[in-house]
Amino acid sequence: MGIRFPNSVGLAAGFDRYARFLPYTQRVGFGFIEIGTINVNASKTPDSAVLATLDNLKKATKYSKNSVQRRGISLGSLHDGLTKQTEADFANGMMLFWPYADYLVINLSRPNSPTRNPSLEPKALTSFLTNIKRDHSQFASEFRRYVPIVAKVAIDHECNEHIPEILLSLKAQQFDGAVIAFENWPDISRVADYVSQLKSTNEDFPLIVVGGIRSCDDIEQLMAAGASLVQVFSSLITQGPLRMQKMISNY
Ligand SMILES: Cc1cc2nc3c(=O)[nH]c(=O)nc-3n(C[C@H](O)[C@H](O)[C@H](O)COP(=O)(O)O)c2cc1C
């Protein structure tokens, strides 16, 4: 992705949706954090959640100038389907949050996202991703700063047939990587097997892997399988910040 990360363990999206906990997550030692998901509606003025998040990010930029923690911003749309409206929501999100992001995430992992629908049309997906990437390139030249862009997709253990073609499409549209959320997988070694399978055909494409990580051994298995970075969410809650800090210090 062209970014230097202080370590390979990040805090997944959903924990700090409004960028309220940045100093605390820095202290736990996370190498990166994904703020959001922030749902933007392009046809309305920014709502109070969007404004509060922007405000928190502005403040954080001042007080954490020397922080090495990287910051992803996860963008969402509450419109269904891969439509012009959804595309406009993501474009609006990119425009608002560009100045505060080390990388941007197009979140296609929510439960009723079209990417999780068995009847997903590959052509519709490609055209949607092409348009998002076109908007992204335009902002990169307007802001005169390239911000890497990735998409987050979920892989349910029972339903994951679209993932290889989604990755191919992301790569073809020159996305900088993907966040892959593994849901309902029975154990981490099966996740690791699936990651190495994906890596065998996407060797040079960064994969950020999330879902079910509970220990250093889990992290090691996923990194050995080819994950570029990993993220945790539930373990911070179930194990607490001190154990998490210890776990991260190994990376
Ligand atoms: C309460 C809760 C809220 C979440 N919110 C988001 C979100 O807003 N955006 C997103 O991409 N993922 C969200 N997630 C998914 C997490 O980022 C992560 O992919 C998932 O929890 C699996 O990781 P874990 O097994 O370490 O918890 C959420 C998860 C939980 C439990």
UniProtKB/TrEMBL annotation:
Q: Which UniProt keywords apply?
A: Flavoprotein, FMN, Oxidoreductase, Pyrimidine biosynthesis
List the record's Gene Ontology CC terms alphabetically: cytoplasm; plasma membrane
What is the recorded name of this protein? Dihydroorotate dehydrogenase
Dihydroorotate dehydrogenase catalytic domain residues: 199-248
Q: What is its pathway?
A: Pyrimidine metabolism; UMP biosynthesis via de novo pathway
One example GO MF annotation: dihydroorotate dehydrogenase (fumarate) activity
Kindly list the biological process annotations in GO that this record carries: 'de novo' pyrimidine nucleobase biosynthetic process; pyrimidine ribonucleotide biosynthetic process
**Protein's UniProt keywords contain Membrane:** no
PANTHER family, sorted: DIHYDROOROTATE DEHYDROGENASE (QUINONE), MITOCHONDRIAL, DIHYDROOROTATE DEHYDROGENASE (QUINONE), MITOCHONDRIAL-RELATED
Q: Which Pfam families match?
A: DHO_dh
Tell me the SUPFAM superfamilies matching this sequence. Answer: FMN-linked oxidoreductases
- Tell whether Cytoplasm is among the UniProt keywords: no
Q: Which cofactor does it need?
A: FMN
Q: EC?
A: 1.3.98.1
